[in-house]
Amino acid sequence: MTVKFADVKTGDALPPYTTLPLTRTDLVRYAGASGDFNPLHHDNTFVNVFGMERVIAHGMLIMGIAGEAITAWIENKNLRKFNVRFAGMTEPADFNDLEGTSKRATITVTGRVTEKFEENGEKKIRCEIIAKDALDSVKLTGFFIAALS
Predict the structure, then answer these.
(1) Domains in the chain: how many in total?
(2) 55, 18 in Cβ contact below 8 A?
(3) Residues of the chain with pLDDT under 70
(4) Looking at residue 74, which CATH number applies to its domain?
């Protein structure tokens, strides 16, 4: 489905996008793809030294999930700007927990169109976005601008 400028209204919601629970395996895969092998993302002994219970996901992985949510709605070629601010650490599901897989490790990205405008001969929208875990803890906030026909 192609999103058209004429069909979008200020206040319209971005379709919600929810991931499967992030696992440590996802973090290891992301580390391999990105080259970011910081022990904060894979070594429990290391994070325990800093008083943390578990490793945390890469912030850029969460930003990538937000980008995936955006491009699930609009085509990547229409994206003109994408900006985020990280707001909280994301823990992966730990299969060793007695409770089983934690729902907190799912990420849901939502958003809303906040502006429609024309600039440099293009019709554009600005959307505010937010990514939260299943416990409603904010992981990132931001916005994107897209040009639509």
Answers:
(1) 1
(2) no
(3) 94-103
(4) 3.10.129.10
CA separation for the pair 142, 10 (Å, rounded): 17
CA–CA separation, 24 and 29 (whole Å) = 9
Asked if 24 contacts 43 with a C-beta cutoff of 8 angstroms, the reply is no
Q: Is the pTM here over 0.85, yes or no?
A: yes
C-beta of residue 40 within 8 angstroms of C-beta of residue 55: yes
Tens digit of each residue's pLDDT (9 = 90 or more) over 67-82: 999 999 999 999 999 9
pLDDT value of residue 112: 98
pLDDT at 24: 87
Using DSSP, state whether 27 is helix, strand or coil: helix
The token duo for 85 is: 């601010």
Distance CA 123, CA 117 (A): 6
Nearest alpha carbon to residue 130 among 3, 14, 10, 11? 14
Q: Which domain holds residue 13?
A: 5-148
Contact status, residue 19 vs residue 26, Cβ threshold 8 Å: no
Gyration radius from the chain CA atoms: 17
- Beta-carbon contacts of 134 under 8 Å, excluding residues fewer than 6 positions away, are 103, 104, 105, 106, 108
pLDDT at position 94, please? Answer: 63
